[in-house]
Amino acid sequence: MDGIVICLGRYRNARFKRFARSTDDPGLARRYMVIVNLNEGRSVPDTAKALGIAESTVRRIRGRFHKYDEAGLIDRREENGQRKLDEEYLSSLYASVAGSPQDYGYLRPTWTREMLVLVLKKKTQIKIHVSTMSRALRLIGARRGRPKPTVKCPWSDAAKRRRLRQIERLLNNLPRDEVAVYEDEVDIHLNPKIGLDWMVRGQQKEVLTPGQNKKRYLAGALDYRTRELTWVEGERKNGPLFIQLLWQLTQRYPKARTIHVILDNFSIHSTEQVRTSLKTPEGQRIKLHFLPPYCPDHNKIERTWQDLHANVTRNHTCPTLSKLMRNARRYLRSRNDRTRIDYCKAA
Fold first, then answer.
1. Per-residue pLDDT tens over the stretch 204-251
2. Regions of the chain where pLDDT drops below 50
3. Cα dist. 287→16, 269, 273, 274, 341 in Å?
4. Using alpha carbons only, what angle is made at residue 107 by residues 141 and 114, rounded to the nearest 5 degrees?
5. Per-residue pLDDT at 137
6. Cβ–Cβ contacts within 10 Å for residue 62, how many?
7. In the beta sheet, which residues pair with residue 188?
8. In what order do the strands lie in the sheet with 229-234?
9. For 125, what's the count of Cα atoms within 13 Å in the CB-facing half-sphere?
């Protein structure tokens, strides 16, 4: 038994960790973490000490995993025929969920557990119950969520990679007397965006909407180094709003030799007013670096706007736009305070 060596691939090791964090069964989580610790090179005594269990328990879990693979961790059954949720089945399930039912001849574009049972039966010749499929989905870390709408970048893959590498080199070699920021705009709606929330059984929460929508706009710049946000507000999302932000950046970084602004291809960033403002003495310190079209995932400020919606605007109950904007300013200032403290600690 002492000669047993646990060897997980990188994917399985990461999946085991995710499952141990997400499961509601502490015993099951502990068994998974035993295998993770052994796989990462810890000895039986060290693993036992780290998890607060006996060395004999670690050896028993290791032995069951060696004999039954992952099924030995899940249900502890030693004699119940061939295990269905083995690594091959879970890998096939992972590949299926990552795709679409339409890849398998179905008209429906979204998965149901029943459809997955049928597809996996064709792929693996193994039939399981729908409730077992729920457990299998948890094992691979699958979740139900809203897909993200995207638009395909019109550039060739080579051109897209070339532009992204240029920006990456800029950031990796950024001189100390220069600054780089990610820029983008966000809409603040008085009519709240509806998002997921916890509710008790038999209840559906209601969000009262004012009816007639009103909007304000923020243009923001996220500092690449410090992660602090500089922003301005406006009643219209247009060139003057963007120019106002650029002026604010020159005031925010008076000693910066160059302010590099990484941004998308929105039309307000390329107006004649913007080009004229960049020719002024202060404007000449600013250099624009445009991302490939339709590549929001490469604009780091997008996550800041997502956090703003999650913490302020989604399902909000503010009766007026002025109160909603006060809440937005309060959140962003608080965020900057936390970011400043974290940056000082890291430095």
1. 888 877 778 899 999 999 999 999 999 999 999 999 999 999 999 999
2. 1, 77-81
3. 45, 12, 15, 12, 29
4. 45
5. 92
6. 22
7. 216
8. 229-234, 215-223, 178-189, 258-263, 286-290
9. 1
